[in-house]
Amino acid sequence: RIAYVNGRYVAHAEASVHIEDRGYQFADGVYEVCEVARGFIVDMPRHLARLKRSLKELSIAWPVSEGVLPMLLREVVRRNHVVDGLVYLQVTRGVASREFVFPAAGTRPSLVITARKADPSTAAKRVENGIKVITVPENRWDRVDIKSTGLLPNVLAKQKAKEAGAQEAWFVDADGTVKEGGSSNAWIITRDGVLVTRPAEQGILRGITRTTLFDVAAKLGLKIEERGFSVAEAKAAREAFISSATTIAMPVVEIDGAPIANGHPGSTTLSLRQAFFDIAEKSPA
Ligand code: PMP
Question: Which of 147, 223, 235, 282 is catalytic?
Fold first, then answer.
């Protein structure tokens, strides 16, 4: 495997950044993950637009000129012969002697890009079975709209899910409404067939897959309501699913041990998943 590190393509096993990188010391950085499907990078323009916003919110400079990134992502995918899998990009504020305040102007942000193959049959099996989620109290900061590498609450929540035999944890707000998953957005489908997902302005990450699923739903003539929903409403829903670049739309069949409907993946979720790839933007790698 090959990684891109600050202008060089290096063997993945030997790829490294300096111990005083601010990503390592402070999680002072942002990232993006794009799905690679059948040789195409999915929704790359939307992911790069979100990266731009994340960098701006944290006053981190572009590590390379903005226009070069699509080429670098493609090149890392190509060099790793990834046809199905993902490409990961991370920008940190750079290497500097450890001080909380920003380093001197001119410190170069660090850019790392990696790519990894995934077996489509593993995803297919997951879709067939559906996944289980647990709920955990929201304990993250209020800037989760920034796709920061500071993910310790997400790590702990997802570990707790794993130990409970589940695959995702949903953060629940103090008012009892579901926010999002540790690495995904949360959706339900009501008994009337309406898709419900939390407004992006209400303390969640604006998922790229979430945005594209709005386009997919419109194409399929499905109604979406952007509003909060409670755990109780989710347990009583006709369907539930999560969305993210790597899971697309993944059926949820159990929440805190309670089965959703008959405990099998929902048909509308599967239709959304099917239609997703036709509608998403596909950049040849
Ligand atoms: N919420 C969180 C907290 C996430 O980490 C992710 C995955 N990056 C998402 C939502 C889904 O976003 P996307 O569809 O852009 O992958």
Answer: 147
229 and 174 in one domain? yes
Q: Are residues 49 and 152 in the same domain?
A: no
**What range does the domain containing 161 cover?**
123-284
**Of 48, 51, 147, 244, best ligand 1 pocket probe by most atoms within 8 Å of the beta carbon:** 244
At 13 the three-state DSSP class reads helix
Q: Are residues 14 and 39 in the same domain?
A: yes
pLDDT tens digits in sequence order for the chain, 285 residues long: 999 999 999 999 999 999 999 999 999 999 999 999 999 999 999 999 999 999 999 999 999 999 999 999 999 999 999 999 999 999 999 999 999 999 999 999 999 999 999 999 999 999 999 999 999 999 999 999 999 999 999 999 999 999 999 999 999 999 999 999 999 999 999 999 999 999 999 999 999 999 999 999 999 999 999 999 999 999 999 999 999 999 999 999 999 999 999 999 999 999 999 999 999 999 999
Residues 258 and 236: their CA atoms lie apart, in Å, by 9
- Cβ < 6 Å from ligand 1: which residues? 33, 180, 183-185, 205, 207-210, 243-245
Give the closest residue (by CA) to ligand 1 atom 3: 183
Query: In this predicted complex, what is the ipTM?
Result: 0.99
C-alpha distances out from residue 170 to 5, 42, 209, Å:
33, 25, 17
**Buried-exposed string 20-40: b where 16+ CB fall within 10 A, e elsewhere:** ebbbbbeebbbbbbbbbbeeb
Together in a domain, 135 and 251: yes
